[in-house]
Amino acid sequence: MSEVHVAGSRDVAVAAPIGMVSLAPNSWTEPFWVAAGRHQLVVQRCRNCGTVRHPPGPFCPRCRTQESEWLDLNGRATLYSFTVIRHALAPHLREYLPMVIAVVEPEGAPSARLVANLVEVAVGDVVIGMPLEVVWEDAGDGVAVYRFRPADVAART
Questions:
Q1: pLDDT at residue 153, rounded to an integer
Q2: Residue 105 covered by a domain
Q3: Rounded distance, CA 101 to CA 155, Å?
Q4: How far apart are CA 15 and CA 97, in angstroms?
Q5: φ, ψ for residue 76 (rounded to 5)?
């Protein structure tokens, strides 16, 4: 998926340009990005106490162990929080506004929070608690970036 625009509307959330994506995975985040490259959304789960966390890291924040596994998610989420960016940090980014940066709570992993662009939605329609679904944008070389859109968009298209 690329930038999402509606003809004549500047109030529809658009995605950050895929050219801005530059990953530097480490041993703790690499499994997440490998799964994302397959359009599979995962979060890290502690093997000792079952705590789910994101972003991935070396220690469980609850029991402090390092034993972890990856939990497959179904791609559905709830909007937990968001902000709307209306002013570009650089002139060449003006065309990517407005941008909604969302914090989402993935279904099946309520203690995890993911940060992503919210797309395919009018800014005025964004409401905390709204159901969302993941959409993917391929960046090439096996890299994909997740975004979220309102869950009802798929039913309308």
A1: 67
A2: yes
A3: 23
A4: 8
A5: -95, 150
**Does any domain span residue 5?**
no
Number of domains in the chain: 1
pLDDT for residue 19 = 74
If pLDDT is split at 50, 70 and 90, which confidence band does 155 have?
Answer: low
Rounded Cα distance, 28 and 50, in Å: 17
CA dist 157 and 144 (Å) reads 22
48 has pLDDT over 80: yes
CA distance 122 to 124: 5
Cβ atoms of 88 and 97 within 8 Å: the answer is: yes
Q: Which structural domain, as residue segments, surrounds residue 85?
A: 18-156
Instruction: Specify if 78 maps to a domain.
Output: yes
The mean predicted confidence, pLDDT, of the chain is: 88
Distance CA 90, CA 69 (A): 40
Residue 4 predicted with pLDDT over 50: no
User: Quick check: is 145 in a domain?
Assistant: yes
Return the closest-CA partner of residue 104 out of 145, 144, 59, 150.
150
CA separation for the pair 79, 85 (Å, rounded): 17
Peptide bond into 56 cis (omega under 30): no
